[in-house]
Amino acid sequence: MVYFLLAVSFILHGVLILIIIILFNKVKQTEELESRQKQVSREIEEVFHAYLLEIKEENAKMDDWFKYSSEQSKQRLDQNRTDAEEKTDYTPPLPLEGEEDYQPSIQSSVIGMYQNGTSMEEIARELNMGKTEVELLVKFQHIK
């Protein structure tokens, strides 16, 4: 009976040692995983920090550019004011003789004719276009 109890004790001790080794390996794996995650988080933080520094530099450049361009526009406005004060009698340019009159675009012609009640077939015939092209132009303008 003593031998039986010793055998059971050795078996139990062996199983417990095996369980302890398995648990030790699991703890070791989780510690390694945790250290890798910390390293990855540090790397991500460094990348974000570098990115933020680049953005700050770009913002500073843009701010300088904006200040410079606003100063130039103020100078131009002042120059234009002095020029305007010198030239008080402005007359707009007149069209030259023989200049062609304004011709509306095809799209505006189609829309105008459609809004005036002309059918799509008539519009296509009059403007020398396809009926489908006229339908698409009207559809793109969301006219009902």
UniProtKB/TrEMBL annotation:
Pfam families: DUF6115. It comes from the Bacteria. The chain crosses the membrane at residues 6-24. Residues 74-89 have a biased composition (Basic and acidic residues). Residues 74-101 are annotated as: Disordered. Keywords: Membrane, Transmembrane, Transmembrane helix. This is Uncharacterized protein.
